[in-house]
Design goal:
By secondary structure, the chain is mostly beta strands. The protein contains seven helices and 46 strands. The strands form eleven sheets. A seven-stranded antiparallel beta sheet has the order 38-39-42-46-45-44-43. A five-stranded antiparallel beta sheet has the order 15-14-13-12-37, with no helix packed on it. A four-stranded antiparallel beta sheet has the order 3-2-1-36. It is elongated.
């Protein structure tokens, strides 16, 4: 995590970002010590001991934290470290405009209030952004997985229909949006385009100004879309009444008309942020200048942020500390690393936890393709001549050298899954008299459905299996547990056995077996303990050239 934090610090020197303009003062800084996150105050006192897998800056008096462990969850703490919203979520955003987004396992993005109460669930959303100006961006996916963005209000009511390829957040009642041609423009809160699509990239409006990019050059427009500064710089950042710019790989400042007030001369620079001093890099060290470009604090640090309040975060060697406006240490460098979220908050008034993705899975849509009673309109009472006819196939479509016969492969269910279907049995044989192949009058042994999960469904094979079990009617559980460390179950019905297993966490397989099928060997391999099941004899599962399961890993002999 330390390396990631430092990488983010380096990125700040070359990317466009918005000036810090928060009404909330930073009082506690999330730091990293021995791989765990805690908080120290502006005097260097550790207020909340390092104990979290991750931690953000406090917003609206709450910080988002992730608990440690393989299955760490997200929750919220107050400034004493007390958990005020339990860590029950697999993902979450920080609070903004009084709401945060959270996602529970197999659930859609849910807006919660600061007491943890649910405000509303946005079931249709694929992704959501923080609320800004009381509107939150959300995306939906169509049947071809194309994503489009719209906006909801704080009651969950759709205000702007999903129609944009990409969006920023509202600021000053305006929001940047991108069309299908890759161009950016701006809309108002009704969704009306008020600045036409024309830019290659944009930043949000700050104090009536927005940075825009055209042909890899940065300029500035006003809220009517008129150029205040024509595109000419490599980078630009709104910095109160100045513009921090990069030109010819050097950083400096210009005024709102584009006239240089501090000539580009520094290797990198951070905004004044409304203060008296700005952090600049000279050679390989950082120091501070005033608005006349006079060096006030000599370059001596390995990194230095803009001042927030009366302090700046500096790095010396491998440690972070705080200095005052005289360049004196308020907190000696002693901390291994700082949360990336601190930098995102300081420079962009944003968060690395500003967006989350749904974990909701429409299980019904996936399972409706499995027909237990009549798989793909076939039956165990059908002889293979009948099956060949029902499938509109010919003798040439089947092999006499394989007991597994693929009917179709990777048929799309939705944007999160596809499925395949096969059956097993001796379909084709050779005549001992004529040496010609023919379709036998035997009957199928098993029908096999394989579901391939991806997107939001990726890794949820076991959840699909258990949902399938809950939908079985008229079947009795014979045994469940683990085979080779993967969840498995066997059910018995009046006309068939059902085996549920998975080839991987994203490939559940459902075997519908003839009632004469010898199920005992599979039953014997199911163990109640997941670890114990790994040590058992491997189950041989054949895979065809279609990468599909052939037959279940049990004897295919009939019981007379």
């Amino acid at each position: 995590m330390k390396k990631i934090s430092l990488l983010f610090v380096a990125i700040l020197t070359i990317v466009s970002c918005s000036m810090f303009n928060s009404n909330e003062e930073i009082e506690l800084i999330p730091f990293i010590q021995n791989g765990k996150y805690g908080f120290f105050d502006l005097e260097g006192k550790i207020v909340i001991n390092p104990q979290f897998e991750y931690a953000t800056v406090f917003r609206e008096n709450l910080a988002l934290v992730k608990t440690t462990g393989d299955n760490g969850k997200w929750g919220f703490i107050d400034n004493t470290g007390k958990i005020v919203i339990n860590a029950n979520y697999i993902d979450a955003t920080v609070f903004q405009n009084g709401l945060a987004w959270v996602v529970s396992e197999n659930s859609a993005p849910t807006a919660i209030e600061k007491n943890g109460e649910i405000k509303f669930v946005l079931k249709q959303a694929n992704r959501v952004h923080l609320f800004s100006d009381d509107l939150a961006a959300f995306s939906v996916k169509d049947t071809t997985s194309n994503e489009s963005w719209g906006f909801v209000d704080k009651s969950g009511v759709q205000i702007i229909t999903p129609q944009f390829n990409e969006v920023r957040d509202f600021s000053g009642n305006m929001c940047a949006v991108k069309n299908k041609d890759g161009k950016w423009g701006f809309i108002d809160k009704s969704g009306k385009i008020i600045i036409n699509y024309q830019f290659d990239n944009v930043e949000k409006f700050i104090d009536g100004k927005a940075i825009v990019y055209l042909d890899n050059k940065a300029g500035v427009i006003d809220n009517e879309g008129k150029y205040v500064i024509n595109p000419q710089f490599s980078r630009a950042i709104v910095d109160d009444k100045l513009i921090l710019i990069s030109q010819d790989e050097k950083f400096g400042w210009c005024d709102e008309e584009g006239k240089f007030v501090i000539n580009p001369q520094f290797e990198s620079a951070q905004p004044f942020n409304g203060g008296k001093l700005a952090s600049v890099q000279s050679g390989d060290k950082y120091g501070f200048i005033d608005e006349t470009a006079k060096i006030v604090i000599n370059p001596q640090f390995d990194f230095a942020t803009s001042f927030f309040g009366e302090v700046s975060l500096v790095k010396l060697g491998s440690k972070f500390g705080l200095i005052d406006e005289d360049g004196k240490y308020k907190v000696n460098p002693m901390f291994d690393g700082i949360s990336m979220d601190f930098f995102e908050y300081l420079y962009n008034q944003n968060s690395v936890k500003s967006s989350i993705e749904t974990d909701f899975l429409d299980v019904d849509a996936l399972l409706k393709v499995i027909n237990v009673e009549s798989p793909e309109n076939l039956s165990f009472n059908d002889e293979f001549n009948t099956i060949v006819s029902k499938l509109n196939k010919t003798q040439e479509d089947f092999s006499a050298y394989s007991s597994s016969h693929l009917v179709f492969n990777s048929k799309k269910i939705n944007s999160n899954a596809s499925y395949s279907f096969l059956f097993t049995g001796n379909v084709k044989a050779m005549s001992d008299d004529t040496y010609e192949f023919y379709i036998t009058n035997e009957k199928p042994e098993t029908f096999v459905y394989t579901i391939n999960l991806f997107g939001n469904a990726y890794g949820k094979a076991e959840s699909i299996q258990k949902a399938f079990e809950n939908k079985l009617k008229g079947f009795n559980l014979m045994k469940k547990g683990f085979v080779q460390g993967r969840y498995a179950s066997v059910f018995k019905g009046p006309n068939s056995f059902i085996i549920s297993w998975n080839l991987s966490p994203s490939t559940p397989v459902f075997y519908i077996c003839n009632p004469k099928f010898d199920i005992s060997r599979f039953l014997n391999r199911i163990k109640s303990d997941e670890e114990e099941s790994y040590s058992q004899e491997n189950i041989d599962v054949e895979v065809s050239s279609y990468d599909q399961v052939e037959s279940p890993a049990v004897d295919t002999t009939y019981v007379d």
